[in-house]
Amino acid sequence: MKILVVDDEPLARERLLRLLDKVEPGAETEEAGNGAQALEMVAAMQPDLLLLDIRMPGMDGIAVAAALQSLEQPPAVIFCTAYDQFALQALDNQAVAYLLKPVREEKLREALGRAGKLNRLQLSALDGGAPARTHLVSENRRGVEIAAVDEVRCLVAEQKYVRAIFPGGSLLLTETLKELEEEFAGRFLRAHRNALVSRAHVAGLNRDGDDRWTVSLEGVEERPAVSRRHLAALKDSLRLG
Q1: What is the pTM of this model?
Q2: How far apart are CA 135 and CA 125, in angstroms?
Q3: Which stretches within the chain are classed as H helix?
Q4: Which residues pair with 99 in a beta bridge?
Q5: Statement: 2-127 belongs to CATH 3.20.20.70
Q6: In whole numbers, what is the pLDDT of the chain averaged over residues?
Q7: Which end of the chain is less congested by CB atoms within 10 angstroms, N or C?
Q8: What count of Cα atoms within 13 Å lies in the side-chain half-sphere of residue 213?
Q9: Can you give the pLDDT at residue 241?
Q10: What is the chain's Cα-based Rg?
């Protein structure tokens, strides 16, 4: 079994790793100190299980678990939390495996037996709504790849997939363009029925001699077409004349 321990507190990670040596002595273990690093480690080691701290600065545990839902076979998750009655009630109501800090050996053993894969409804209920993703996750023949949403310049529909394009590369996503538009409303703008562009990275609108428009984006060569239907709204959103 491959287990990834994720916690922003080094002492908490050390304690869990020591306990895992006792409870699962044959397990391959790794650690991560924050949510973004956790996603990178998932891509590198493809763990079977995450021991995942809920409250972390930046990307918290629920947001990490939400990002992993893009994987065909997401790892099982055991949430770790300090005592908080409201949080415990939410976890209990969603039948999610969890551990109270400081973690005890017998409780870890029990939680390992209950750990399971989470679904989007559980995560949405835990967070009071679908948590905003900070990273996109893609699974392909090379393994698991991730990209920060802030780095993505555009999202382009290609047959069964959507390609997220960023400086130096791209990812193929299984979500539809409409789903991504709704999730990242305001951050990505509709340029064409097949393309969304990142508001933060638009360098300009370009018009050619045939009265066709494209969007230039910072750091990438891709220039998505702008349809007549979406041109006025795009200009207005970007405050262009």
Answers
A1: 0.70
A2: 20
A3: 10-23, 35-45, 61-67, 85-93, 105-114, 120-127, 177-183, 228-238
A4: 80
A5: no
A6: 87
A7: C
A8: 14
A9: 43
A10: 21
* Single-letter code of the amino acid located at 2: K
Q: Cα–Cα distance between 64 and 35 in angstroms, integer?
A: 6
**What's phi and psi for 70, nearest 5 deg?**
-75, -15
**Bond prior to 10 in cis (omega within 30° of 0):** no
Q: Give the CATH fold of the 148-238 domain.
A: OB fold (Dihydrolipoamide Acetyltransferase, E2P) (2.40.50)
Tokens of 84: 């908080």
Place of tokens 């047959």: 159
Identify any residues that bridge with 190 across adjacent strands, giving them in sequence order. Answer: 196
Cα→Cα distances 237→166, 178, 187, 222, 225, Å: 21, 18, 11, 20, 16
Alpha-carbon separation of residue 182 from 109, 176, 177, 187, 189 (angstroms): 40, 10, 9, 10, 10
Domains 2-127 and 148-238 fall in the same CATH topology:
no
- For the record, the structure tokens of 57 come out as 């600065």
Residue 96 DSSP label: -
